[in-house]
Design a protein that fits this description.
320 residues; alpha/beta; Spore Coat Polysaccharide Biosynthesis Protein SpsA, Chain A; 7-stranded mixed beta sheet; 48% helix
Length: 320
C-alpha cells in the first residue's frame, strides 16, 4: 500500500464527510493505493457514527474509537501502530490541512528520500495574539534545543516513512515533537514543505493557550531523556559534585577567616553568624542529594530491560 492517512479527531462530525471525500478524490486522481485511519479520541458528538457510515461504503476507511478522551499523542500512537502504508501522512480533521498537499509530501519521502517531512503553515488564519505569537516563540525555542531547523513543529500535516513511525513512541503530549523523537531514533533526514493553511470551516478549536506551557515542559523532559536517559549520572553527578565543591570551598573560606582572626588575636565573629555558612552548608547538602539521585538513577538505568534496546537499520546474514 502506498499511503496511510492518520486522522486524529475530537468532535469533528461536520467536517469528516467533506474531509474524506477530498482525500479520496486526491488519491484516485494520483492512482495511490491508500487507507484512511480515523482515530476518534473520545468524541461526544456524532463523529463515530459518521465514521461508521463512511466505512460502510468505503473499504479504505478504518477507525478506532477510544472510550474517553486521551489526547492527540495517544491517537497518533494508535494510528501509527496500525498504519500499513509505505508513507504515513497525518492531518487534522478540521479541514485546516489540505489533502492536496499529499502527492508532493509522498514524492518528497519516496523520491527525495526524506525520513520525515513537516508542513509549515507560513500564512496562517489564526488569531495573531492567541496562536501566532506564542507559536513563533515556541518554535524558536524548540529549534534551539532540538537542533532541527523547522519553522512549524506543531503543524499536524506531516509525512513519514513507515519505519519511522514504527520506531518511535508518542506519549503524553509529545505529538508536538515527533521530528525530535525521530531524530533521537536515528532518522535525521528531516525536511519541510510550505503548506496551505485554511480557516476553520466548522466548530471551534480544541486547543487553548495551556498547550504552550505544557509544550515547554514536554520539551525539557524530552531533551533530558534523550541526552541523559541512559546516563543520568552524567547530569546529576556533575551538577551535584559542582554544588558540593562550591559549598565545601565556601565553608573553607568562612572557617579560614575565623582562623585568621584567632591567629591575629582579633575578635572573631561566630561562624554561625555568617549567612554564607548556611548557604555553603545548603549547597553541600543539595550537591550530595543530586549526586545520590544520579547514583540511584544509574542503578535503575543499568537494570532497565531497555538499557540495550538499539534499533538496527539493516543487517546482513544475521537472524533476528
Amino acid at each position: 500500500m502506498d499511503i496511510s492517512v492518520v486522522v486524529p479527531l475530537y468532535n469533528e462530525d461536520e467536517s469528516l464527510p467533506e474531509l474524506f471525500s477530498w482525500i479520496k478524490r486526491v488519491m484516485e486522481e494520483n492512482g495511490f493505493s491508500y487507507e484512511v485511519l480515523f482515530i476518534n479520541d473520545g468524541s461526544t458528538d456524532d463523529s463515530w457514527n459518521v465514521i461508521l457510515g463512511l466505512a460502510k461504503d468505503n473499504p479504505t476507511v478504518k477507525g478506532i474509537k477510544f472510550r474517553r478522551n486521551y489526547g492527540k499523542s495517544a491517537a497518533l500512537y494508535c494510528g501509527f501502530k496500525y498504519a500499513s502504508g509505505d508513507v504515513v501522512i497525518t492531518m487534522d480533521a478540521d479541514l485546516q490541512d489540505s489533502p492536496n498537499e499529499i502527492p508532493e509530501l509522498y514524492r518528497m519521502i519516496v523520491e527525495e528520500k526524506y525520513d520525515v517531512v513537516s508542513g509549515w503553515k507560513k500564512k496562517r488564519y489564526d488569531s495573531k495574539l492567541a496562536k501566532n505569537l506564542p507559536s513563533k516563540l515556541f518554535n524558536a525555542t524548540t529549534r534551539l534545543i532540538s537542533g532541527i531547523k523547522l519553522h512549524d513543529f506543531n503543524c499536524g500535516l506531516k509525512a513519514y516513512r513507515n519505519n519511522v513511525v514504527k520506531s518511535i513512541e508518542v506519549y503524553g503530549e509529545m505529538h508536538r515533537y515527533i521530528p525530535y523523537l525521530a531524530k533521537n531514533a536515528g532518522f535525521k533526514n528531516i525536511g519541510e514543505k510550505v503548506v496551505i493553511h485554511q480557516a476553520r470551516k466548522y466548530g471551534s478549536t480544541k486547543f487553548g493557550l495551556n498547550r504552550f506551557f505544557n509544550g515547554y515542559l514536554d520539551l525539557i523532559s524530552l531533551w533530558f531523556l534523550s541526552t541523559f536517559g541512559k546516563k543520568p549520572m552524567h547530569f546529576f553527578g556533575v551538577v551535584g559534585s559542582l554544588m558540593f565543591l562550591i559549598g565545601f570551598v565556601s565553608v573553607g573560606i568562612v572557617g579560614g577567616s575565623k582562623l585568621v582572626h584567632i591567629i591575629n588575636g582579633t575578635p572573631a565573629p561566630l561562624v554561625t553568624d555568617s549567612p554564607y555558612f548556611y548557604l555553603a552548608l545548603t549547597s553541600m547538602i543539595i550537591g550530595t542529594q543530586l549526586f545520590l539521585s544520579g547514583f540511584i538513577g544509574e542503578l535503575v538505568s543499568r537494570n532497565s530491560a531497555e538499557r540495550n534496546d538499539y534499533r538496527f537499520e539493516e543487517v546482513i546474514n544475521i537472524e533476528q
